[in-house]
Fold this protein.
Amino acid sequence: MSAYTFYPGCAMESNAKAYYTSLMAVAKPLGINLEEIEDWNCCGATEYVGMNLIPAYSLIARNLALAAKMGNKTVLSPCSACYLNLAKADHYMTERPALGEKVNEALAAGGLHYQPGSLDIRHLLDVLINDIGLDNLKAKVVRPLKGLRVAPYMGCMVPRPDYNNRWSDAEHPVELVEVLQAIGAEVVDFPGAATCCGGHMTQIGPETAFELIRRLISSAERSQADIMVTVCPMCQVNVDAYQGETNRHFGTNYQMPIVFFTQLVGLALGFPPDKLGFGTEITSTEKALARIGVDIPKPTEDTPHKQAGLPMPSCLRKNAKGKVQHAEKEAA
Amino acid sequence: MPTMTDEQVRAHLTHEEDLSLLHEVSMKTAGVSRLEMCIQCGSCGGSCPSGMDMDHTPRMVFAMLRAGMRDEVLQSNTPWVCVSCYHCVVRCPQNVHITDVMYTLKAMAIREKKYRDVAAPEFAETFVEMVEKYGRSYEFGLATRHYLKHAPLRMVGMAAMGLGMLRKGRMSMKPRTIKGMDQLTAILNKAKEMELT
Amino acid sequence: MSEHFEPVIIGFTCNWCSYRAADLAGTARLKYAPNVRLVRLMCSGRLDPTFVMKALSDGADGVLITGCHPGECHYVEQNYKTLRRYLLLRRLLQGMGIAPERVKLVWASAAEGAKLANEINSFVEEVRALGPLGWPQKLAGNVKEVEVAA
Amino acid sequence: MSTNNGKPKVGVYVCHCGTNIAHTVDVEQVRDWAAQALGAEGVVIARDYKFMCSSPGQELIEKDIKELGLERVVVAACSPHLHEMTFRNASKRAGLNPYLTELASIREQVSWVHTDKGLATEKAKAVVAGAVERVVKNEPLDEIKVPIHPATLVVGGGITGIQAALEIANAGYKVYLVEREPSIGGHMAQFDKTFPTLDCAACILTPRMFETGMHPNIELLTWSEVTQVAGYVGNFTVTIKKKPRYLKEELCTGCRICVEKCPKKVIDHVYEAGIGYRKAIYTSSAQAVPKFPVIDTANCNFFQKGTCKVCEKSCPTNAIDYEQKEQFLKVDVGNIILATGYDLFDARRVSNYGYGRLANVFTSIEFERMCNAAGPTSGKIVLRDGQTTPKTVGIIHCVGSRDRNYNNYCSSICCMQSLKFAHLVKERTGATVYDFYIDMRTPMKSYDEFYQRVLEEGTLFVRGKVAQVSDAARNAQEEGKLIIQVEDTLVGKQRRIPVDMVILSTGMQPRHDAKEVGKLFGIGCSSDGWFTEKHAKLDPVATMTEGVLIAGTAAGPKDIPASVAQGSAAAARVLNLIMRHEVTLEPIKAIIKQWQCSGCRICNGLCPFNAISFRAERRVSEINPALCQGCGTCVAACPAGAISGSGFSNDQILAQIDGLLMDVNPVSA
């Protein structure tokens, strides 16, 4: 049983719950012992790093400093964006010592310190292939996913920019293909495998994002895939939850489900779908999984109930000078 | 792993006067940007999946930085349309840290209030605000506020999706706050006093 | 240490690159500190660690070793051997209680007169900051007084 | 001469160099100080003079040597790189061994780089003291003269090696031409047309290959490799491995019946660049020189399964010999020319261009073979299906070159090669041709004119480095095509251009084994991996190892005219040495004192010139003075102190350090 310091990232406790659930299910039989970082914080995604450099790297480095205290050399992240942000911060703080020094000055204000380069930041997929091993995985398969045509969707931030030369290729990486083949799925040739899902553009420039989502889904369709498989929460949300919007935008009628690779690994290891977060996707996986005789549980109706004191965030407003201010502050 | 002091980074940027804007952007970028090494080949602009929606291709932005066109660059939507896919970064024959330069340009545009379209910068600001308040991202708050402000009409369409996410338990209406919020605030406050130049 | 301390440094140069860099610095009339006295070797690979010990024990406060850039050695690859010896030498000095920073390795091609001049200037300041070594004086007096490395 | 503290008599001569030295250094003070303070070190006379290098200045020294019986001379003046020879010759004229004269550089290292006259004068004294202490320890040395063997080894039978071999052979001297492949001709033999004149490559190369094969002074050793090089300039002994062809060359008539009859067809990855076939017994082409076939045992039915023997049965002269073994020959040569050429960049590495994944993406060498009338498609330009003529073709420059992810350098031939391809596609198919370039580089004679011609023919040039080639269509027009995605940098917009065929103008890279080959011959490679020339501009075909020359693309990317010119240049250098009959070597060498050597062999592996060998019978190591280049690395490494470096001995250097530190060392002061 190999022990890893675990950085789940914000998405794992909200929109990517299925990823979390399925990872927790398969970790034990695969021999991955996850030790979650005590009181980790957000990695800053792509937004924080684009706002303010030193605070962004300090935000990330707080996690690294906390992780270093855990005692394992490897920090494992299942989320592509978190993996890249942690790895990038570590890399740049080493490449440019001035950055490292300033970040540590900030960390010191919180009683923390991080020695750049002292941790190995790795993605779950890398650990699965290189530490656990495909043969080991294959040996544990009890229900090969024979007949399920899967499009391996690696996305961007795992194979690129690849600071530590961990991945097979920046353009056509084979890692996810190998894992899916190991669990018996039929992997289709998917030209979109390492292209962009639109990232934050679903929020700030949806038309741009819809086009990227359309390219992905149509590419998967052309390849006659039953289902897309991802390693990244952002990719999953964009392709899954924004598929309806994309269809409306283009007048199309795509129905391409997308799930996390750990969910399919879980199925192959014999877990029932309800223990793997199936049913939480917006675009139904029912038809796809029916091909391998797996029934998807009906979604649990987790209707939001009204809660007293729900903290409704304040709106940003521009004052007379065009300066952005908080509404409360202005009132005060 | 090669490490460079800021003096070495600077030493690569000769002709101080001509390159002053380029120099400024380069020094403010997290790693060693290599921005001065651009040969204008266009492999970034060719690679960009969202390039069709950009005012200028990344290559043009770099040429404009060389030309000292500060306002035009900071008003450009280019860095905001960047999807951080890193295709340009791995294909760049000169290993320019293009994506990180885009981050720098966003930060400069916000600081100087030069951006034209407010949606993207304000989304970023809201995100940052949420993180600084709770220590973790808070999608529900972020999405609601963002759509209310910038796309109230789209809110109708998105509401269905949001509801779906809520119903499937994939979006929490309650933010999670980390325990060490005071510590994080102290770190970020200290960090905000500093700049990489 | 006195404000007027002028360190004396022995510099070992390679006949093909750094010695020519020194020539070039001269031809270009670049100015650098007069504290360095150069010894010409055919190759930095000729540098016997004894030379460094000899220089320090003869009263030098620092030793500058210069050679061709890695991959550009006139004798194919001998400067890599210099690099290895240099690293060992520094450990040896540390063990002897002499600050290893008193010995510095610098690559300078025949075209890098300016680089050599800059390196000399900064090394002079680094050694100045370390203060006098005074090996002969201390040897003549009390051996235990040889400085303790940081 | 009798009593001088037991030290040799030293004369010190301080030069003013007009005001170059005297302006910053108090020359008279240095002179007086040398006479007084260095008296104990052996100085018997110190003089100063306006210009020591002038005739009267030199005569001053000569006169003192004769009249005062000086045994050592120190000239404090400029850099030894400028006038060491001048003053050594002066001493020689006066009967003193030239190596007993030292220069102290007080101009480049003192007066020109310092401003404070007091400090400069003090430093000048230290430099002079160092030189005096050193010169006392100098020993007389004699120049080494070695004879030159008139035969030459040329390694590599491409156009460069052929040119060099013919030049030397035509001058009347013996050449051994070694080639790794079964035939000479190299890359050029694979090409169809050559830029910018569009001469047919075979038409101009084949006669040269034939001449080489027939030349009485050229011994052709194809299907052979050099395995060992011993000796030094003028006197190399080279071991060559002749791989078995499995036929007796003396019996083979080159009728090629065996090739025709051989039932085993395999893909030819070498000559046909993977788009054509050959037999298991083959010659690279019908024009191969020599004409003898070779059996590819890995694919031969007989060698693999023990049956077949069709070649043996069909041979009219019984030349086939399955029992043939590899042979080793030793040849003596005076000089070696390395013309080992280049490897083609592996386009698979640029995965965004899809070579190896997308069928209709071709490399430049594949396209060359396709265009060649004797090639697999008989000169027809077709898609991978072997039939369809492309209607639209995209040509991509700089594949693997000018890119820090692959090779940093410009491969120098790709622009012209691409223009040539554009022309050939237009001429033979009338297809629409797109040419994607970063910078168009056409600097040589008639090259830019060729660019003009291709422009005129209507090739569509797009300035931009192609981002990707894919088959992922986004709309109906792209369906079934290869889509080239690029920023048209002159328009400032991303374009997606659907084409039928993509040609990658792949660059050159050093031979995969260049480093090992360099080590074998005692020469180095640049950081890019090309062989390093002695001087990039002024001595481009010589190397740091005397007697080993480099030519053609082994030293860096170049086109055919430049390669041929280097082949001739290297031959001229060799002929120069051959005609001098002997060569003089500098006596700066390392010597092992046999009685002190413990036989530990630490030094053996340190020498990049293979000058040190271990004498097992005496259990000591020995240095070959002609191979030794005098770097002194072994001297510094010998744990027994058994190696001394003449000209730069420990005694000399330690004494110089003593002198340099005379003013600060209370013990010696």
Observations:
- Chain D is about 30% helix and 25% strand.
- The first strand of chain D starts at residue 10 and ends at 15.
- The two ends of chain D are 26 Å apart (CA to CA).
